[in-house]
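step=predict obj=ArsR family transcriptional regulator n=221
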Amino acid sequence: MNMMTTTQQHSTKQDILQYLLKRHQARAQELAEALDISPQATRRHLKDLQGEGLINYESVQIGMGRPQHIYRLTSQGRDRFPNSYDQFAISFLDTLAETVGPEQVSQILHKQWQRKAIEYRQRVGTGPVGDRVAKLAEIRQAEGYMAEWYAVETQGEAATGEQRYILTEHNCAISSVAESFPSVCGHELEMFAAVLYDCTVERTHWLVNGEHRCGYLIISH
C-alpha cells in the first residue's frame, strides 16, 4: 500500500470519527452518503475503528428488515480530538486545592475566565450580534471546541427586534478539567454572557451531564 493510500484511509477514518462526534450516532449507510464513500469502504473503516476501540455499535430493529448497527464513539474515540488541558492541569489544580483550598481555586478559575472574556470581547468586536456570534464560534473552533452556530427563526421577531442564535460545541477542549472541576462550566457560561454583553445566554446542552454536545441559546435584547 503506497503512502497516499494510507494517508487517504487515515483521513477518511478521521472524517468518520468527526461525523460521529458531531452527530452522536450514525448508520453505515448514512456515513457513506455524508462522506461520499462507498458502503463497502465505510464498513471496512468502521470495522478497523471498532478494532482500535474508538467506536462501538448497537443493533436496532428498524421496520421488518434486518437489524441495523448504530455506531457511536467510545470514550477512547472522543479522546482523539483536541484536548488542550491534559492530566498535568488536573494534577496542578488538585495540588493547588490542597495548598490554598477549593474556594481559592474556584476564585482563581473565575479570574481566568474573566480575563478570557476580555480577550474574546476584544476579538469579536462590536458589530451586529450575528457577526459577533459567528466570530466567537470561529475562535472557539480554532481552540478545539468544534463550534458551530446558526440563527433561530422565531415568530414575531420582526415586531420585537429579538434575534436568537444557537452556539454548539461538539468537543470540550478542557473536558478533563471540567469533569474534576465542574465549576469551570459555570464560568464559561458567564464568560459568553460577558462577551455578548447585550444578549441573554442560556445553556441548553451539557457534555458533562452525558449529552453529546454543549449548547447555548443566545437571545439579543
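step=describe
The first strand starts at residue 55 and ends at 60.
step=end
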